[in-house]
Amino acid sequence: MALNVHAFFDTSILLAGLVEMGGDEPRLILDAIARGAVSGPLTARYCCLEFYSMATRPPAGLRLEPEQARRLVEEEILARFRVCDRPADAPPAPARATTSDPGSPFSIDVEYPDLMVAQGEYQSSCATVFTLDCSHSMILYGEDRFTPAKRVALALANLIRLQYPGDGLHGVLFHDSAEEIHIKERARVRVGPYYTNTREGLRLAPRILDRQRADMRQIVMITDGTPSALTRPDGRIYRNAFGLDPQPGACSPKL
User: Fold this and answer.
1) 225 secondary structure, DSSP code
2) Of 34, 36, 86, 165, which is least packed with CB atoms within 10 Å of its CB?
3) What is the tens place of the pLDDT at every residue in 124-154?
């Protein structure tokens, strides 16, 4: 004879009885429900969600596969319990309904404030060389292009220092020639009466990167435009304020 009571069974009873996470009492209770000894057993939609989540969460060897947990929800809970707050026409599969059917008892209303983005563990390393143009053209005709360029370099250095503290960062100034600068000196860099020897900057940067042991290497160049100087094979510097042009004895501006 069925016991005519309206008993509510929460997640702890469902987990302990169906997944053997507790003693004998929860299992005996669910056996009684399966035999029909208890009429009208109640549970709730959130209990079904919690059961599915907690049954598939433990370490390997202890947890259920999603399909196993779904089958238990369908065959052992939804088929034998009356689920509070569950629409009559809702499909029974929690894994599918959670993502696809807004009318399901397992549907979850997610809004933008509920989302959280977390950065994963950073495994690779990167070496960066930023090359900064400090030629006179960066402040030519009363327009200061050097200050914004230096701010970009400072922002890049700060980003790498805070977000990727294990990465390498080096600086190169290029003008009539090119020279490596210490990162701490980048805020005191000034424009000089120089031309733009882009080639020397791009020749020095790879040599610096060759000394670094990193998975990735990159060069970030900040300049205002056309090269106006290059170094000849004999070490002399060819300059042309209007841009490079073919000159007898001048080397190619290519790397």
Assistant:
1) S
2) 165
3) 789 999 999 998 888 888 888 888 888 988 8
